[in-house]
Design brief:
Shape of chain B: globular
Largest interface: A-B, 17 and 14 residues
Distance between the termini of chain A: 20 Å
Number of helices of chain A: 6
CATH superfamily of the largest domain in chain B: MetI-like
Largest sheet of chain A: 5 strands, parallel
CATH class of the largest domain in chain B: Mainly Alpha
Helix content of chain B: over 70%
Oligomer: heterodimer
Radius of gyration of chain A: 16 Å
Number of helices of chain B: 10
CATH architecture of the largest domain in chain B: Orthogonal Bundle
CATH architecture of chain A: 3-Layer(aba) Sandwich
Largest sheet of chain B: none
Order of helices and strands of chain B: HHHHHHHHHH
Strand order of the largest sheet of chain A: 5-6-7-3-8
Number of strands of chain B: 0
Chain lengths: 186, 259
């Protein structure tokens, strides 16, 4: 269960949102939509513990995993190296299988800096799926992916995050539909 | 991309120009020295070269270089260790940074000569150059490492936080590769300054069998040719040690990259 209860967040004089309430029960899939700057990413950052609210209460039960808006990979490490950084030892076959299912079979040994934008995006998604988590936060996860790859990636996410809470930030309704998420406009 | 391309194209002619300029100044030096005709005022480059050759064949020269170099390196190593450790602690605990601030500020602003005199009063002249190298190198390395820590990629720090990356992994994969270039730059500058201040300290404290003592003898007897020869040795040693530091840092960076 993830929740923001009457949360207010300001950056300097600008109030991003005030007395905002959001609840994502365990196993639910919710998509936050709205214009740029309305606080979608801020809501994810608050839930991930990367920001503190100015007022109100943030609560999360269990572990969080997050696909950041930017890929934030280590450029010198290959996809497996980037996954190993967060996933720990063992599970090599499982992690490799995850990368293969995301269409990265031919890029397993290439440093992240040599991958295309779409490939890097999928490595960032694989990293978030590689750890132990109870809720998955996705900030525009399909950015830079073509329609086929979006569909393929969404299928992997749905399989891996089965039974877990998903909170997605997207600009496009089709992305919410790909993950079967309930839409919430900010 | 553009600056490196330009530099590659201009590299050969630039080197030739520098070599020609050096030759010009050497010839001018030779002319002035010959015109003066007073070796104790200004020894000619040829005389200096001859004296340098003699010095390099004497065991005493190498022993003096070993003693001075060893002590300066000891002081530098202490400065590198304490400076880096304090920078890391200061980043983690702000009170450490505030506690150390007056010390760093004093080390940066107090004249080296004052430190040398104080050190002569407080400690044996034998370890004077090590102590001065430490005092001079420490704030430089501290400042650079602290800057490297401050400028780490915030995005990657957040990745480490969200994914609960263990401390050792965080250090090896995220922090050290980003901080190492700052350490390298500080260490190279510090090494040059440690040599300059360490030898200056020896010149004032005159510990026996050191480069400083040899320079003191040169000063008293106005052996100008030997002064230039020793200067060349000091510059060469300082450059050699700085190069070694750069190579070590590059090797460490490559090692971290391969992990």
């Amino acid at each position: 269960m993830l929740s923001l209860y009457k949360v207010t967040k300001r950056y300097g004089p600008q109030t991003v949102f005030a007395h905002f309430i959001l609840e994502v029960p365990a196993g639910a899939r919710v998509c936050l939509m709205g214009p740029s700057g309305c606080g979608k990413t801020t809501a994810l950052r608050l839930l991930a513990g990367l920001e503190a609210p100015d007022a109100g209460r943030v609560s999360r039960e269990g572990k969080i995993s997050l696909v950041f808006q930017e890929n934030r990979l280590l450029p010198a490490l290959n996809p497996m190296g980037n996954l190993r950084l967060v996933a720990g030892r063992g599970r090599t076959e499982q992690l490799e299988d995850l990368l293969v299912r995301l269409g990265l079979k031919d890029s397993l040994k290439k440093p992240a800096r040599e991958l295309s934008g779409g490939m890097r995006r999928r490595v960032a998604i694989a990293r978030a799926l590689a750890v132990d988590y109870d809720a998955l936060l996705l900030d525009e996860p399909f950015k830079g992916l073509d329609p086929d790859t979006r569909y393929q990636t969404a299928q992997v996410i749905l399989k891996e995050a089965q039974g877990k809470a998903i909170l997605l930030v997207a600009h496009d309704m089709a992305e919410a539909e790909l993950l079967g998420a309930e839409m919430l406009r900010l | 991309m553009l600056p490196s391309t330009t530099s590659l194209k201009g590299d050969g002619p630039a080197k030739t120009r520098v070599a020609l300029a050096a030759l010009f100044w050497l010839v001018l030096w030779q002319i002035i020295a010959s015109a003066l005709g007073q070796e104790y005022l200004l020894a000619s480059p040829l005389k200096v070269l001859g004296r340098l050759g003699q010095l390099l064949t004497q065991a005493d020269t190498w022993l003096a270089a070993l003693r001075s170099g060893g002590r300066i390196l000891l002081g530098f190593s202490g400065a590198a260790l304490v400076g880096a450790a304090l920078a890391f602690l200061g980043a983690k605990y702000p009170w450490v940074r505030d506690f150390a601030a007056p010390l760093i500020s004093a080390a940066r602003s107090v004249p080296v000569a004052s430190f040398i005199i104080l050190a002569i009063i407080l400690v044996s002249t034998r370890w004077l150059s090590a102590l001065i190298a430490f005092v001079i190198g420490f704030p430089l390395i501290y400042g650079n490492v602290a800057e490297g820590i401050r400028r780490r990629d915030r995005g990657l720090q957040e990745v480490a936080y969200v994914f609960r990356v263990p401390l050792i992994k965080r250090m090896l994969y995220l922090d050290l590769p980003q901080i190492l270039p700052y350490f390298k730059s500080g260490a190279i500058s510090a090494m040059g300054l440690c040599w300059k201040s360490g030898i200056a300290a020896e010149l004032i404290g005159i510990p026996s069998g050191t480069i400083g003592e040899r320079l003191y003898i040169v000063k008293v007897n106005l052996y100008t040719a030997e002064l230039f020869a020793w200067t060349a040795i000091i510059v060469a040693l300082s450059a050699l040690f700085s190069r070694l530091i750069a190579l070590l840092c590059d090797a460490a960076a490559r090692g971290l990259d391969r992990l």
